[in-house]
Structure formats: structure tokens, C-alpha cells
């Protein structure tokens, strides 16, 4: 596996390596210990100021994606990870996860084409959209993708007509009161309707191989996983009564990825493990997968955007005690990306992005009520308001962290602009962990040794640094 890699010291310019296999043609800057992605960002901003560029851009720390993957394998040892591509369609993320042996959930033809273009085999792809366009079903069939979800008769009928040999996964609704991010009206069949759907599938000669559910973001009670896994068990039993040999359980996504949510992640995985052991004990012949989105990418992406317009407006506070002569100042700033582009999560996910200021300021500068807007002038294109910020200027850069999930890289820009460029980076230790995992992935005969395998010579040190024990390639799912 020839690679171009250079040692990068803190004072050196970042090195760019090109990895082979799934990571072909992906330029990744590998940063040495003590040289963080923040340093890389500083370097990029310096370059931008030298060249006069004001284009917004992302820095993606793929090392964080790798770290999340290893943490997941440790926290949910019986679960094979899949990635919900709609969460962030950037090629670098898809390539990195493919190289780690992750499977993919695709909701559209372009997502399917992207995953295929990276070289992922069809047995690692599931078509997960709740309402698949016929052309997508036909495309999936032409590509040999077999696994598809359904939660109603119409969807089942569409697949039966266009892809009769598909293997279906029945999507089950979750308790909406505890899972506000996933309303059951748009996703999942009720437990009551499952028997009828299974009978309909039988009448249509469709094979049903498993059950899925998805706990949406913002769930309030981790016991919703226990309830959903118990419900899935009931559907497996209904299926068995009808003669189906179901062997796949997909526990969906919803796992948080932000730094402050680590405790919630650990609590959730403990609950999931107990419920799996109770309802789908080891050796029961059911393969368990999860389809995670935000968990993998949220923290990894930092967005850097430029102020392209500024307006001073009087803050209308008649009679207020701090009213200054001539009114208190407030500022409206326009950025060169907005909710129709990389800040789409403001609308779709109700997020409130908070900027980090790039420029150095005098200590305790005066603060002004400020609002941030996108470039379109549309009154929906509001990114954030009511913030107390020092006075900023056109040309200043703002940095937004935790911007990986359901943001710009998730979609082509609605504003018609080119999506912001993404610079990929990762630490050397994470890069070496990927090489190690790829080595394992390329040696299938070693998969059999999973339970007894001694640690690889340098595996422990690398993965210890990443806070996890060594992991091995999951067996192919079916
Ligand atoms: C069916 C399904 N599975 C998985 C996901 C991924 O969810 P998350 O990004 O919260 O992990 C989604 C996201 O909407 C989904 O609809």
C-alpha cells in the first residue's frame, strides 16, 4: 500500500497524505502531536488573508470520526455500525467510514451513487428512506442493493413491483412522547399494524428479513431503547409465526455526538446493551446494526465564515435605564453563508450556532447586541440573534464548532452557491489506527480470531491513545 506521508512538526507547513483503497484521492493533512486542527485552521486563515480570499470553508477532523468509531465498537460490542449518509454527505466522511468497515444507510439515489463510487460492496448498503422514489428503487435493484426498509403497504407494493427480490426490513414507530425528533406519523409502523404488514408482504411474496426503529434526536428517556427493542422482539415473533426467518435488527440512530453529550452516550449504550442481552441474547442468530449520523460527524466539523456586510441599527429600548444619548448601538452582520447553505440546521434542527471570534480583541471590549444573517437578504435567513458581541468588521472571520451534522456538507446549497470547501485533517495517531484497522480488514482470515486474538504489536498503544481497546473488522452482515 504505497503512501505519501511526511513527518509534520509544529513549525512545518501541514503535510498532505493520500491514502489508498477507500481513501483513494482523499487529501488529508496529518497533524503531529502538539499540532492541532486549530493550528491548521490558523494556517488556512493566514493563507486566506495573504491571497485575499474570503470564501467560507470547513475543517473536518477525520480523527474524531475514527475515535468515535472505536468508542462505539467498545461501547456497543454486539452492534455493527452503519452510517446515515443524509447526515453529512461529504466524500471524506464516507471514504473514511468505508475504510473502517462501516455500512451505509442511503435515502436517495445520489447517496447510493456516492457510497457505490467509493467502492462499498452492496451487502453493506441499506436503502432506508421511508418513501423511496421508484427510480431509486430501480437504481438500487440495478446495483444489486437488496436491503430496503418499509413501514406501510404502499411502500411495500412499490418495492414488490420494482425490486421483487429485495430483502425487506420493517420499520417500527417509537414512542413519540419520548422521541420528539422522530414523529411516528412520518416514520415507522405501529406495533398494531405490523402483523397485517407482514401478512401483506407474504401475499406479495416479499421476503422480510428484519426490523428497524429510529429514536430521533433529543430523546428524553433512554428507556425508550428498551421499549423499542422489546417491541422489535414481538415483531420477530409475529414474523416467525408467519414463517419468516428474520435475522436483522437495526436500532437506528439518535446517539449524540457533541462533547458535552458523552455522559448521555454512555448511559444510552448501557441501556441498549442490557435490552439487547434480554430480548436478543447472544447466539440468538440475529445480527444487530445501528445507523448513526450525528454521533460520527457532529463534533468533527468546524465551519469558518466571513463577515461580508455590517449595519449599525439603534437598539429600540425606549425608557430603558441604560438608554444612551442617541440610542444604544446594535449591529446586524451578514455572513457569506446562511440557512440556505451551511447553516441549514438552524431551520431543520432548531440549532443556535454560537461563533468563536477569530481576531484578537482588547481585554473587556464593549459588547453590543448583535445578530448574524446569511447573504440572501431573505428574512428567514437568520442564523442567530440576541448575542452580545464586541464590534466586528467586514472581513472578520467567525468560527463555528460542532457543525458536522445536517449542515452544509449534508446537502448542496439551496442558495445556488457552491458548497463550502472542506479541508480534511487528522492526527497521526488516528491515521495510524486507520492503517492498523485497514490491515485487519484486508486480512479476512484473521476475523475468525476475533475473540482470542492477541493485541497487535502496536495496536494497544495507538488505540490506548484513542481511549479504546483494539477493535477488529466486523463480519459481513449477511
Ligand atoms: C431512519 C433513520 N436512521 C438513522 C438516522 C440518523 O440519526 P442521527 O443522525 O440522529 O444518528 C436517521 C436520521 O434522521 C433516520 O431517519
Keywords:
single chain; alpha/beta; TIM Barrel; ten-stranded mixed sheet; eight-stranded parallel β-barrel; 13 helices; binds pyridoxal-5'-phosphate
Q: How is this structure best summarized?
A:
This protein is an alpha/beta fold and about 475 residues long. The chain has helices at about 35-50, 60-75, 90-100, 110-115, 135-145, 155-160, 190-205, 225-240, 260-280, 295, 345-350, 430-440, 460-465; strands at about 15-20, 25-30, 55-60, 80-85, 105, 125, 145-150, 165-170, 205-215, 250, 285-290, 300-315, 330-335, 355, 365-375, 380-390, 395-400, 420-425. It folds into two domains: about 60-295, Alanine racemase (TIM Barrel, Alpha-Beta Barrel), CATH 3.20.20.10; about 305-405, Lyase, Ornithine Decarboxylase, Chain A, domain 1, CATH 2.40.37.
- On the 0 to 100 scale, the average pLDDT is 83
Ligands in the model, by name, code or SMILES, are: pyridoxal-5'-phosphate
Euclidean distance between termini CA atoms:
28 Å
Uncertain spans: 1-14, 443-465, 467-478
- Going by CATH, the homologous superfamily of the largest domain would be Alanine racemase
Strand content: 15-25%
- CATH class category label of the largest domain: Alpha Beta
Number of helices: 13
Count of all domains? 2
What general form does the structure show?
elongated
Give the helix proportion (percent range).
25-40%
Q: CATH fold name of the largest domain, please?
A: TIM Barrel
Q: What is the rounded Rg?
A: 24 Å
Number of strands: 18
Main β-sheet description: 10 strands, mixed
Protein name: Antizyme inhibitor 2
Organism: Sphaerodactylus townsendi
Amino acid at each position: 500500500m504505497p503512501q505519501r506521508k511526511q513527518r509534520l512538526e509544529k513549525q512545518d507547513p501541514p503535510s498532505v497524505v493520500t491514502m489508498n483503497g477507500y481513501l483513494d484521492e482523499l487529501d488529508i493533512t496529518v497533524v503531529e502531536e502538539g499540532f492541532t486542527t486549530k493550528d491548521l485552521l490558523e494556517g488556512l486563515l493566514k493563507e486566506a488573508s495573504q491571497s485575499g480570499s474570503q470564501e467560507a470553508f470547513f475543517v473536518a477532523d477525520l480523527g474524531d470520526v475514527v475515535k468515535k468509531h472505536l468508542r462505539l465498537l467498545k461501547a456497543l460490542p454486539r452492534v455493527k455500525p452503519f452510517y446515515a449518509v443524509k447526515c453529512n454527505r461529504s466524500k471524506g466522511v464516507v471514504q473514511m467510514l468505508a475504510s473502517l468497515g462501516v455500512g451505509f444507510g442511503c435515502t436517495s439515489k445520489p447517496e447510493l451513487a456516492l457510497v457505490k463510487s467509493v467502492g462499498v460492496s452492496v451487502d453493506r448498503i441499506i436503502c432506508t428512506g421511508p418513501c423511496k422514489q421508484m427510480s431509486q428503487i430501480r437504481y438500487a435493484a440495478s446495483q444489486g442493493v437488496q436491503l430496503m426498509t418499509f413501514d406501510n403497504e404502499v411502500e411495500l407494493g412499490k418495492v414488490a413491483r420494482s425490486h421483487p427480490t429485495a430483502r425487506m426490513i420493517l420499520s417500527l414507530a417509537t414512542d413519540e412522547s419520548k422521541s420528539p425528533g422522530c414523529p411516528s406519523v412520518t416514520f415507522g409502523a405501529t406495533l398494531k399494524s405490523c402483523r397485517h404488514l407482514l401478512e401483506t408482504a407474504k401475499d406479495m411474496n416479499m421476503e422480510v428479513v428484519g426490523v428497524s426503529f429510529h429514536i430521533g434526536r433529543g430523546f428524553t428517556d433512554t428507556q425508550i431503547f428498551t421499549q423499542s427493542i422489546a417491541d422489535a422482539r414481538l415483531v420477530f415473533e409475529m414474523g416467525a409465526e408467519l414463517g419468516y426467518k428474520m435475522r436483522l435488527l437495526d436500532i437506528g440512530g439518535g446517539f449524540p455526538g457533541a462533547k458535552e453529550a458523552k455522559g448521555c452516550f454512555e448511559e444510552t449504550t448501557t441501556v441498549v446493551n442490557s435490552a439487547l442481552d434480554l430480548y436478543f441474547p447472544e447466539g440468538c442468530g440475529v445480527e444487530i446494526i445501528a445507523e448513526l449520523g450525528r454521533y460520527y460527524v457532529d463534533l468533527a466539523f468546524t465551519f469558518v465564515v466571513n463577515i461580508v456586510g455590517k449595519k449599525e441599527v439603534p437598539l429600540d429600548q425606549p425608557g430603558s435605564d441604560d438608554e444612551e444619548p442617541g440610542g444604544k448601538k446594535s449591529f446586524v452582520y451578514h455572513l457569506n453563508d446562511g440557512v440556505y447553505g451551511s447553516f441549514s440546521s438552524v431551520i431543520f434542527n432548531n440549532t443556535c450556532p454560537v461563533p468563536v471570534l477569530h481576531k484578537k480583541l482588547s481585554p473587556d471590549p464593549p459588547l453590543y447586541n448583535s445578530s448574524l444573517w446569511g447573504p440572501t437578504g431573505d428574512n428567514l435567513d437568520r442564523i442567530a440573534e440576541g448575542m452580545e458581541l464586541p464590534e466586528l468588521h467586514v472581513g472578520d472571520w467567525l468560527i463555528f464548532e460542532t457543525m458536522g451534522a445536517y449542515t452544509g456538507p449534508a446537502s448542496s446549497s439551496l442558495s445556488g452557491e457552491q458548497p463550502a470547501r472542506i479541508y480534511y485533517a487528522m492526527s497521526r495517531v488516528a491515521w495510524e489506527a486507520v492503517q492498523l484497522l485497514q490491515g485487519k480488514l484486508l486480512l479476512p482470515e484473521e476475523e475468525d480470531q476475533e475473540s482470542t486474538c492477541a493485541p497487535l504489536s502496536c495496536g494497544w498503544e495507538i488505540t490506548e491513545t484513542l481511549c479504546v481497546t483494539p477493535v477488529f473488522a466486523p463480519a459481513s452482515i449477511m
